[in-house]
Amino acid sequence: LLATQIRGYYEALKRFEIPVPASYTLVDDDGHLVECASDCGLDGYTILRQGGGPFSGVEVVQAITRAALPILLQREMWGVSLDLHPANWCFDATGRTAYVDFHPPRYLFEGEYLVGFPQPIDPQDLEYCHKRYFSAAGLLRMLRFNIIRAGGLRMNEVLTHALTEYPSTVQEFISSQFPPLPSSVGEVSDRL
Question: Is 114 helix (H, G, I), strand (E, B) or coil?
């Protein structure tokens, strides 16, 4: 069943035009799932933490948010989601971006929103995961947290700069969801 769910998720992402590896196969070897995908380059989290490759932090965040726009800009989630953690996105030398996290699948499968493996069964956990993965605000919060985690408070500047390329309606939405972060540790302690 899990292999069917993962294959279905991969196909759903392609329908939403989310960039995925050019080739991808999933083999069930006596109950052991083996994923094989074409090389997609360096992951975004590594680039944010260590630098490397031909990309800046701003370019990584812009590429992730640009690639995720078909999901982020839905009025209502249509049953397909992503995990915007930068480690789930890879960047090759040509600048091609690819989403590479197919497990656990995050989409509507046979009437149930898949959010984890194992799938949570507690109604409160399911509600929390649904808000986290099936809302633009939840997805952007995860991205913001992981960007900051990758490089401390200085990454707030990367996030702010990266999102200026979007139309004002998108910027207004993002601003309404995320008030500006403090620019220094001193400012954090002043707010406490």
Answer: coil
What is the phi/psi pair of residue 37, to 5°?
-140, 155
Q: Is this prediction's pTM over 0.85?
A: no
Angle, to 10 degrees, between the axis of helix 57-72 and the axis of helix 136-151?
A: 170
Q: Taking a C-beta distance cutoff of 8 angstroms, is the pair 69, 41 a contact?
A: no
Taking only the tens place, the pLDDT of each residue in 64-117 is: 988 998 888 776 657 889 999 999 999 988 888 999 999 888 888 898 888 888
CA–CA dist 191, 183 (Å, integer): 12
Which helix (H) or strand (E) covers residue 47, if one does? helix 44-50
**pLDDT above 70 (res 36):** yes
Q: For residues 145 and 181, give the distance between their C-alpha atoms in angstroms, rounded to a whole number.
A: 11
Q: Which residue has the tokens 């994923």?
A: 35
Q: Quote the CA–CA distance of 137 and 84 in Å, as a whole number.
A: 11
In this structure, which amino acid lies at residue 37? Answer: A
Please state whether beta strands 32-37 and 108-109 pair in parallel, antiparallel, or not at all (unpaired).
unpaired
Among the listed residues 34, 11, 163, 162, the one whose alpha carbon sits nearest the alpha carbon of residue 80: 11
